[in-house]
Design a protein that fits this description.
The chain has 628 residues and is an alpha+beta fold. The protein folds into four domains: 84 residues, no CATH class; 114 residues, XS domain (Alpha-Beta Plaits, 2-Layer Sandwich); 169 residues; 166 residues, no CATH class. The strands form four sheets. It has a four-stranded antiparallel beta sheet, with helices on both faces. It has a three-stranded antiparallel beta sheet with strand order 7-10-11. The chain has a two-stranded antiparallel ribbon with strand order 1-6. β8 and β9 form a beta hairpin. The longest helix is centred in the middle third of the chain and has 103 residues. The chain is elongated, with a radius of gyration of 53 Å. This is Factor of DNA methylation 1-5/IDN2 domain-containing protein. Keywords: Coiled coil, RNA-mediated gene silencing. InterPro entries: FDM1-5/IDN2, FDM1-5/IDN2_XH, XS_domain, XS_domain_sf, Znf-XS_domain.
Length: 628
């Protein structure tokens, strides 16, 4: 056994403990002259010096205990060994030294699993618990200890198992060497013809296995005879089979990995081809839009030029008619017949002039309409182009996310198919790829949801805006009460009673067990009174020259309500005033969007803006959790 680690631990922890034991500050002997471990909380029973020494040496030799515990028990064992030798009696004291096992004949047969035979045990171990004997030989790391019985009676012999591996064989050889060094070997036992006072132990071999008696019967029942060569060959065969199996499994994994790589390459090529086709389609669409804009501009210029020419032609015709009127006036001095003819011609020309003026006005109005139409068309084209750009950017983002998701899924399949021998340290990379994949899928879902909201918003009409308000009210009503209270925009039911007011009133009049039930009944009663259209506790008064509806203080039901207290009275009158000032003639509660911070109705525009802020905040918080 390597004692270097034990020495360092003893120097670190055990020196102080040993000094305390030697000085008597830590006591191991009770007033009755018995001994007790000062370090183990479960070792409260008094025991002999022998038992305490065995306990300390067993804990010291254990491999699965803390270094300080082992060092403390080593100091205790050192302290106990310093006691007078005669006080220890005839002990079974294992020598905790590293003994090199001699080379064995590889054809020599041993009992397997490795077993040790212990004969001529002291009387204090006969018929006692096997665990006590196991703890005594703890330095040799036995796996099991069995007392040997003959016809139901203990024989004073025991079988100690050391396991099936080579470390068990080394422990068994150390066990045998321990007794050989003390002169208590199997050969000496046979020479003394099974006599003597000292216990004797050795490794079970073929002669023990085939011997008559309880020991041979136990060995044949619980073990087999094997040579060292047999065990080495069995382990070699098992190793060869395992290597062959693992090689076959690795080959299958490599084949599967190659198939996955081929599929991944095909998918990547297909996606690349789709991206090229998409780029071509976008380029073609952009060129078509550009042509349409150019054609629209050309048509606009053509219409404007034609209107300008038409105005010039009308102006020329008007100038010509004015010139002819002047000529007619100059010829007015001619004959009466000519004069009458001139008057008729003049009237005709005046009528024609009037018609031309009306035509000019109509043409000017048409020109203005054309200009307005052109401006409207320009605005619609800009809106359409802006919408197309926005949708194109969203489409690019969506397709990029889809490509990244496909790439990550292929990469994840390849990494998950990596053989176990080559996947050292890749578990963390696989988790990172999965996290990134989940984040991309979440972004894609958010993008699709946002695009859908944009499409729905663009197709809304004024009637759909009202429906959106109702949908928003329903959505806010489904929020948990704690979240709804914290939001700036919430839902308020106009004309609905506050049940807390009646609960507080009932708590003052009824016991705690009946207050809640009575408050529900009372609140329901007055809510029905409010909803009753026949109850109209209002009167019309003139305030600043305007008619106003105010509550009648002498109303019988309101006087009855005052008996329940001011809080309940304020709750009912507030609900009545809210319904009275609302649009229409409703007498039942209805929901409206409400600004919780300012205590007023919230317009739809404000509610929509607040809903978008909530959505963005929830989206940002969702991304942070996935990264975490």
């Amino acid at each position: 056994m390597d004692m270097s680690d034990g020495d360092s631990e003893f120097e670190a922890y055990g020196a102080d403990t040993y000094a305390l034991l030697e000085s008597g500050d830590l006591k191991v002997m009770t007033d009755e002259g018995m001994y007790r471990c000062p370090f183990c909380s479960d070792a409260q029973n008094d025991c002999s010096l022998l038992d305490l020494l065995e306990h300390a040496m067993g804990v010291e030799a254990a491999h699965n205990l803390d270094g300080k515990v082992k060092a403390d028990h080593r100091a205790l064992a050192k302290h106990l060994k310093g006691k007078p030798a005669e006080s220890l009696g005839l002990l079974l004291k294992p020598t905790l030294k590293h003994t090199q096992a001699p080379q064995n004949n590889r054809d020599e047969q041993f009992v397997w699993p490795w077993m040790g035979v212990l004969v001529n045990m002291p009387d204090e171990y006969i018929g006692r618990s096997a665990n006590r004997l196991k703890e005594h030989f703890l330095s040799f790391h036995p796996t099991k200890v069995h007392h040997v019985y003959s016809k139901g009676c203990p024989t004073g012999n025991a079988i100690i198992e050391f396991g099936k591996d080579w470390s068990g064989f080394r422990n068994a050889r150390a066990y045998e060497s321990h007794f050989e060094m003390k002169g208590c070997s199997k050969r000496r036992w046979k020479e003394m013809k099974c006599g003597g006072q000292e216990p004797v132990g050795w490794i079970a071999r073929a002669d023990d296995y085939n011997s008559l008696g309880a020991i041979g019967e136990h060995l044949r029942k619980n073990g087999d005879l094997k040579t060292l060569n047999d065990i080495v060959n069995e382990e070699t065969n098992k190793t060869d089979k395992l290597v062959a199996h693992l090689a076959s499994h690795v080959k299958e994994k490599e084949t599967h990995l190659m198939e996955l790589e081929c599929e991944y390459n095909k998918s990547a090529a297909s996606l690349e081809k789709l991206m090229e086709e998409r780029d071509k389609q976008i380029q073609s669409y952009n060129e078509e839009i550009l042509k349409m804009r150019q054609l629209a501009q050309q048509n606009t210029h053509r219409v404007v030029e034609e209107n300008r020419k038409l105005r010039l032609d009308l102006q020329g015709m008007m100038d010509e008619l004015d010139a002819r009127n002047k000529q007619f006036e100059q010829l007015a001095a001619q004959t009466e017949e000519d004069k009458r003819n001139l008057e008729l011609e003049k009237e005709k020309n005046a009528m024609r002039t009037s018609h031309l003026k009306l035509a000019a006005l109509e043409q000017q109005k048409a020109s203005e309409d054309v200009l307005k139409l052109m401006e409207k068309q320009r605005i619609e084209e800009e809106d359409a182009l802006e919408k197309f750009k926005r949708l194109t950017i969203q489409l690019d983002t969506k397709q990029s996310l889809e490509l990244e998701i496909e790439h990550l899924m292929g990469k994840l399949q390849v990494m998950e198919s990596t053989p176990a021998g080559e996947a050292t340290g890749s578990g963390k990379k696989i988790d990172e790829v999965k996290d990134e994949l989940n984040e991309k899928i979440g972004e894609l879902s958010d993008m699709e949801s946002f695009n859908q909201n944009l499409i729905i918003k663009d197709s809304k009409t004024s009637d759909e805006l009202r429906e959106a308000g109702e949908v928003m009210i329903q959505a806010l009503q489904t929020l948990p009460s704690d979240i709804e209270v914290r939001t700036q925009i919430g839902i308020k039911r106009i004309g609905e009673l506050d049940s807390k007011a009646f609960l507080n009133t009932c708590k003052r009049k009824f016991s705690k067990e009946h207050a809640k039930a009575e408050s529900v009944i009372l609140c329901s009663k007055w809510q029905n009174e409010i909803n009753n259209p026949e109850w109209n506790p209002f009167k019309i008064v003139m305030i600043n020259g305007k008619e106003s509806r105010v509550l009648r203080e002498d109303d019988a039901k309101l006087q009855e309500l005052k008996e329940y207290g001011e809080e309940a009275y304020d709750a009912v009158t507030k609900a009545l005033v809210e319904l009275n000032t609302s649009e229409g003639s409703r007498r039942t509660p209805f929901p409206v969007l409400w600004n919780n911070e300012e205590g007023r109705k919230a317009p739809m525009k404000e509610a929509v803006r607040h809903a978008l802020e909530l959505w963005k905040a929830s989206k940002a918080s969702g991304k942070g959790r996935r990264r975490a």
